[in-house]
Amino acid sequence: AQKVTQAQTEISVVExxxxxxxCVYETRDTTYYLFWYKQPPSGELVFLIRRNSFDEQNEISGxxxxxxQKSTSSFNFTITASQVVDSAVYFCALSENTGxxxxxxxxxxxxxxxx
Amino acid sequence: DAxxxxxxxxxxxxxxxxxMLECSQTKGHDRMYWYRQDPGxxxxxxxxxxxxxxxxxxxxxxxxxxxxxAQAKFSLSLESAxxxxxxxxxxxxxxxxxxxxxxxxxxGTRLTVL
Lengths: 115, 114
Known about the structure:
Chain A is an all-beta fold. Chain A is built from no helices and 12 strands. Chain A is about 0% helix and about 55% strand.
């Protein structure tokens, strides 16, 4: 069965610090997809990134970067030079290649960035 | 206007009452989903639908039912609400074709069952 673990329940940093959110997943499939979503205090869920299991290239988007390592079943998310607006709950999710999409979410990591 | 809308946004009800949460989308997506979010548990899938004629149970469907009235509308019902159904409920949509497509979420409905 598939499972996503986000062991960090809450992280507090001061603005401009770098922070890494960990995500470890379990799946028996060789083809699968990993996602990160952001849930700001307003409550909506915002898609951040998708990665398929055959693409281990790291990705950078502005201050955000993602490190996918199949060897350790991890898909970690780093925010560089954090800002107050980054304060949110971040969810990692997994979808196996079953022909349709059933997302399994981790329990989320709450990031608090203080000025 | 938002692509995925949910009504109501907040609802307080009593144990035993029937409640319907509604979801509408203008994205033209075939697939729609209902999730609930509980503190410390993340989001869990209740039901999902590939199209009007295809509805499937998710991880935690007991106590819930759904109706896909049209491609754009997907309703979640609690026939007899109980306090442990107090949660934040999200509707989501995605295009068909594969597990790699991201889901687009509505703003959520906060339900409290007293």
